[in-house]
User: Fold these one by one.
Assistant:
Number 1:
Amino acid sequence: MSSARSHGPDEHPTELAELAAGRVEYRFERRGPNTVVVFYGGHMRAGLSLGEEVFAEAGCSVLVPSRPGYGRTPVSTGGSAAGFADVTAALCAHLGITEVAAAVGVSGGGPTAVAMAALHPALVWRLLLQCAVGPLPWPDRRIRLGAQIVFAPRAERVSWALVHSLVRYAPDAGLRMLLRDLTLLPVRDAVAGLRPEDRARLIPLFSRMRSGRGFSRDLKELATTEDLAGHAGQVSQPALVIATRQDAAVRFAHAQALAGALPHAELLESRADSHLIWFGRDWPLIAEQIHAFLTDGPSRTSQQR
């Protein structure tokens, strides 16, 4: 059973699926026979998108589920990264998807993508991780304490209403506030490095973000690393790990740990100024490598050997 949802400006329409494990919100954009599944991180849901153009250019369909606690997916659906990986595999079956060209994990969505690749190797061909949380403690104590207050379920609506107003009516101040915890550079330099087209994409995105109950759940679940480390060691598929050394939200050490734990991983270093690698000046070159990874990688037969 599925139901459509009306959507606001700068947001994609989503659907609901009622599965055995619970309700899940998702967006499925059909383009071609190959499908990538994208797990976004904190404050993102299925109706929002970031950096998906590279998948469209590769002719891939895109399936984006809202992780537990985000959008219209209840926090009870899945319960853990591994549990939601199973839910997403069931969603693929529900939609008639028998092969996933890549499980894509972005930031806090990384552990779910790793779990899906590990637990469903017959379904998932490749693993793509972008500024993803790895098998290290996350986040640091200062960010955790602040986030537990600002993004708590009872406070996040007010917190985001203030953020939304700020980025709309005082965009420079809003961008400085939001990028402060995403970059290791002086925040004014990071904001000054944004091109007009970057601002035109970031401001609507920040104006639509919400945390729901999802970010509080992430803070609890991602505080432990044992499951992620175990799943990473089980991944038999090719993996591409992308990160920047200027990331303050998910430090570069996470990417290094992931590349070390995944048996068949390549680490690709971005030169971006912040966690938002899609706005780095070298993103076109990275996008080319993602395209090649998706289309020129090992055949399914060679992966199964």
Number 2:
Amino acid sequence: MIKLKLVQWVSVFLLVLLISGCTGIYENGKELAADTKSHIQEITVEELNNKIENSEDFFLIDIRQSKEFEKSNIPYSTSIPRGLLEFKIGDETFWEEEQWYVPEKDAEIIIYCKKGHRGILAAKVLSELGYSNVKNLKGGMRAWDPEFDSGSGTKQEESGCGG
């Protein structure tokens, strides 16, 4: 009887261990972004160009680092580096300095980064903060401008926050 109980407890423990070991562990940010991609909406460069040409009302947010934004950016975009996004998106003082208004929870927000990986994660975070109309620019700055080069190509710049 004691052996049977011990076998049952060990079996339950192993089952719980097996199930819990298969959830939410990623090797790197690119793997996390690839898994997250199915949970967010994306917009193509052509669709973004149409919105700009038609003077549609939306927020275009560049989440790359400030130095990347200074080197090149998409016209009409606002720089909010990825590490500050959750804190700046609803900050009235920040938006006043940008001469904009704070985005409403249903406002269209388009996020972009260098290649799209950071943008995927940023779009997911904004949706978790209650923003319901967030899109990532598919392919990021590289898709917008295929000739784009973010700078010197140093290892530090290339690896920063997942592209």
Number 3:
Amino acid sequence: MGIYLLRRLLFAIPVLWGIATAVFFLVFAIPGDPADILMGHHPTEEARQAIEAKYHLDRPILVQYGYFMARLVRFDLGRSYAHKAEVSDILLDHAGATILLAVTSVAIAVVFGMGLGCLAAYNQGTWLDGAVMTISVLGISTPIFWLGLMGILLFCKVLSVLPFPDPEITLRHLVLPALTLSALLVGYIARMTRSSLLEVIRQDYVRTARAKGLSKPVVFFKHGLRNALIPVVTIIGLNLAGLLGGAIATETVFAWPGIGRAMFQAVGERDVPLIEGGVILLALVFVIANIIVDVSYAALDPRIRLK
């Protein structure tokens, strides 16, 4: 296990380097000049030259790339142009809100997604199966931003049971963005749970368990569900990684003070260091999530050996 983890961590280095390189060159396609943001309300030619020299904006792009990679090697994400603060501090300040939203959304999605998937598989071919699959398709195909806006209209304006979006982090403000964000994942988990369970219960060992006299619920949930969890765990792990990186649409619609909203604002402000830092953080979370998911395979299925 130790050798496997070490090898995966070493393989992660070129992946992160490639992502950092790609995002560095892509941000130059964003219209606007970062020096305009840094100069503030008193733009002068002298101030522009001083700022460009300080942040190496007057150097060729490959030289700027060299400075950028040198900072990353020292785990330095740079200073935000718009906020005049360290990017790592900004991301850390917004991380708590994003983690709370992501974990809550995934918990809701796991409970309802796996529950609906098991219900559909257990009642395969019935109206319950069809209803669950319809709900899943609607959850997957409905745009998050539209669902969020409709949720605000219904629960905040028409029914007045929930507060309007606000940067304040409270349980009442968390309910609607968490439910909205979990809708997509509920559909994926339900469909994957159903298909994986239906595949597992056709295996010989399941038929043998039934032939020995075990009841259908015992065979279904004790012998079938655990072995059907591997593809479900993959979806959960990778989606949690994406949500931890910042659910940009949801956080923007609901004014949730997380990493996704901070990155959305950074694009509008052409805050290059904050954009780069946010994307690199997201890539790092994905790499770690992939490793955790792979390790969980061995825990779920003893036949799997990590080498």
